[in-house]
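Subgroup meeting minutes
Present: P.N., E.W., G.H.
Scribe: E.W.

1. P.N. recapped why we're keeping a running log of single-chain structure predictions: easier to compare across weeks, and new members can see raw inputs and outputs side by side.
2. G.H. added today's entry (280 aa).
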Amino acid sequence: MRRPALIVCLLALTWGAYALDSAIFGASVVSSVSEGDRTAFVLKDATGRTYTVSVKEDPTPETAAQITKLKDLFFSWQNITIGSLRFTITGTLIEALIFPERLVVGGNDLRPFAPAGLFFSYTSALDLQYDFRVTKDNLFMRVSGRYSGEEEVEQKIADAIANPTAYLQRSDAEYLLSRIDQSQTDIAGMQAALDALSKSLQSLSAQMEALRYNAMTRENVEWLFFPTPIPRAGIARILALKRDSPALTPAEAASRLKTEGIKMTDQEVRIVFKYYFEEP
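Output recorded in log:
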């Protein structure tokens, strides 16, 4: 009676797992385990080195080739001995978490100062990056940058451990400078967006002005019922007078125009007040 229940439990534990084409990694599958919507495979390469690959779906041959390249890079390190290596694939992003067995710099093993391991990430756009923390004297120091070699990473770790306070001060200054650079880039982007918006607003304003002028012309019907364009010079002068004297009336505006020698009928003045100032 217990055997069916045991079978159900085993099926539940392996549900969601699938067979990985380990040949694209040049390795063999040692074991696998389901992790929710992921499956983690422990692989062994031709030299007997083991590492884990966590996937949601079958990786592409290109991704597998990049993981193999990164695996060989990490195992080639001279002063960092790999204890465990785990790759996580999410789309085109490859993440690697390394727990060193030894991390020797200047004859000292600094592995205890990196209890959370060493974190790396790779995308074709950004190449290989590293970003992890080391700790000493209850201080946590971020070690990050674009990977250029084992020695650079080791030196940053050694510098952080040798003088945590100085390292934090220098890191804060570098971080501040990077934020300033990013802010300048953001400002330039916003300025470009504002310039584009300004041009759009100018275009829209010109279109609205054309529509308003056409409506005013249609309303300015005189002899034989033909629409007559209203002099633009007169419109501009009325707008200027109204801006200087907000209480200006159509009659006062018509009088000023006549004094200045600008020809406009009383009807045209009233139309301008109607369409620009919503005054009958």
